[in-house]
Amino acid sequence: MTKPPTIRDVARLSGVSTATVSRYFSGKADAISPRTLESVRHAAKVLGYTPSEIGRSLRLAQSRVVVMLVPDATNHFTADIAVSVESALKGVGLSMVLANTGENAAQQDRLLADAQGLRARAIVLQGAIDTPKLRELVAQQGNLIFVNRRPAKGMNAPYVGIDNFQAGLAVGRYFVERGYRNCVAIHGPRHYSGSTARLDGFLSGIGDTTSVMQFESAYTMQAGYEHACRLLDGARQKYSVFCANDMIAYGFYRAAIERNLRVPDDLVIFGFDDNRLNEWLAPWLTTVKVPALDFGPAIAELLETPRADQQHDRSIILPFELKVRQSA
After folding, report:
1. Could you tell me the CATH superfamily of domain 164-289?
2. DSSP state, 2?
3. Which of 115, 135, 166, 319 is the most buried (most CB within 10 A)?
4. Which CATH superfamily is domain 61-156+293-317 in?
5. Protein fold of 7-51
6. DSSP code string of 294-318
7. Residue 73, CB half-sphere, CA atoms under 13 Å: how many?
8. 3-state DSSP of 187-225
9. What does pLDDT average to over the chain?
10. Measured CA distances, 230 to 150, 196, 225, 233, 268 (Å)
11. What percent of the chain has pLDDT over 90?
């Protein structure tokens, strides 16, 4: 196997020192003559040499890599945010490494350690789980950005996302305005801040107008389907269901169709996220639109703004919108 070219090979072919080649690839070429620059550039092209990002990271104690941890890479809304982040980072000369925590605390901690080993420029956590390791990194490194779930109490780090309480409140008030009864909230795990804020906002919006049945759920179609089967196989009445995300709403809808229930005549369904599948597969779904494609530019803005120029609260709150369609 042929060994890859090294900086010494470039120096030898271009007739300059390794220090000069190093300055060229580290962006410190101001003091290098145009002829020498061209010689180094030509030698690197002939040899097919690219500088080692690992070596650069060791010298600068930081790489051009941003590590993004997501809870479920198969979730389309999660994927949309990841695409947005990758595109925005590319625009500012950074690369992204995507890793899936699977909503598992131990897996998240292992990936956080790997991100440290890569000397990541930043660690972006979509759906972070509160662990001692995470708290340690927030306190020591100051390069973590939380997405969708706010950092837990005591962790001072920027957040990019919507105001989940206000979004849930808007849905609750919408239910009241439409006179919906037999309200049901299929909400995410209570120990996640975003799930709690979303549910608390919804309950606040409903107020004392009607009682709300609550079911804690994973953010998956299968979970939505199973909750719907249990609910719809009971006493027949017209339920008004607020789902914690669109994936849960899809599963709920399938169970309703299997039972020959018409939406919204026999059942009201309200989702959350408005992921890109809705346009093609669920144009009927009323939901909360979260601007997935705005996350990337917001995160890039945080990374490009020197901390000394940033205010104490470095969070960016994105707008949400109720997208009223056929299902509610």
Report:
1. Response regulator (3.40.50.2300)
2. P
3. 115
4. Response regulator (3.40.50.2300)
5. 434 Repressor (Amino-terminal Domain) (1.10.260)
6. GHHHHHHHHHHS-GGGS-S---EEP
7. 8
8. ECCCCCHHHHHHHHHHHHHHCCCCCEEEEECCCCHHHHH
9. 89
10. 32, 23, 9, 6, 16
11. 65
